[in-house]
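Model it.
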Amino acid sequence: MAFVNQLEPDALLGHFQRHPPRGFTPFPAADGAPLFVAPFDLLTTADADLRRRVARLPLQAMLKRLLTPRTCFAGTTVSEYSLFVAASDPAAVAADWARGPGRTYPLLIVKDLALDSPLTSASDRAWTARFVDAARESGYLIVEGQALAYVPIDFTSTDDYLSRLSSSRRKNLRRKLRSRDRLQVDVVPTGDAFAEESVVDAYYALFENVYAQSEVHFDKLTREFFAAALREPGGVVFTYRADGELIGWNLCYEHAGKLLDKYVGFVYPAARELDLYFVSWFVNLEYALSRGLTHYVAGWTDPEVKASLGARFHVTRHAVFVRNPVLRAILRRLAHRFEPDSQWEARHDAATDRS
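Modeled.
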């Protein structure tokens, strides 16, 4: 069944259920909506000042344990938004989850609520709005979530797309895109091309390179997950080679009229030297345009870079149920310290208004 706010193909959600990140335990809610339990560092999305203050406190080992509770999440880490069963009543779901996993675990986080999303249907937006209202009434904290980058495919060519950016950005991007002449770019459907174990090993090694240099480490997807995803027909892998060597890949899904950019792997420093991040952005836009798609959905990371590339953003909400009422009151006062993407969006909007 397709869930409320589901952008991804069913197969990808299935791979998460069968091959979750280490330490993660997926399970279904009573109505079949996906949930999972995982250790969660409460400082993952805290602002830099709060992290510095906590780092100066004594007894760091004990603090680390206290600040990393086993937490129940609604949704998956491979879906852009929280997922719900359309036939369920939003108010009943909010109340049932608070009474169930909300009491079993110290924290229940309904992550990345697609409130007013331009990427979902009107019925999905209405369902989500009713859930958020009901969650607030049931004692959840509603906090700003992450900024999901997307691009409407409303241009006729990449030149048309570039013309909408400032002259300085156009000049900078055209310089970076010259690297494309030094690259061999191929489009490889998922499936038989990834049957060999050595091929999966090579692609996973490049994913691990990206994971290692990431600032946020929450869910490290396993080799088994990627083996299943790369071998399941339905995806498309953009590969990048320099002098015959694989230096980057990008796993995407064309689904429901959108191109979903999911996972990348890079070889460093070659990928940086050849501006692969920027080249791949325009390769994806060209693919979406050639396929007559409506949107390119570019994911959560690097909002500043994606803004410079012309992305738009939808900031989600998280609904957080805190079992301990004292801690709930404390977190309510500190909620703004855990909304980095919302703070970035405010700065970005102000800068845009001034330009």
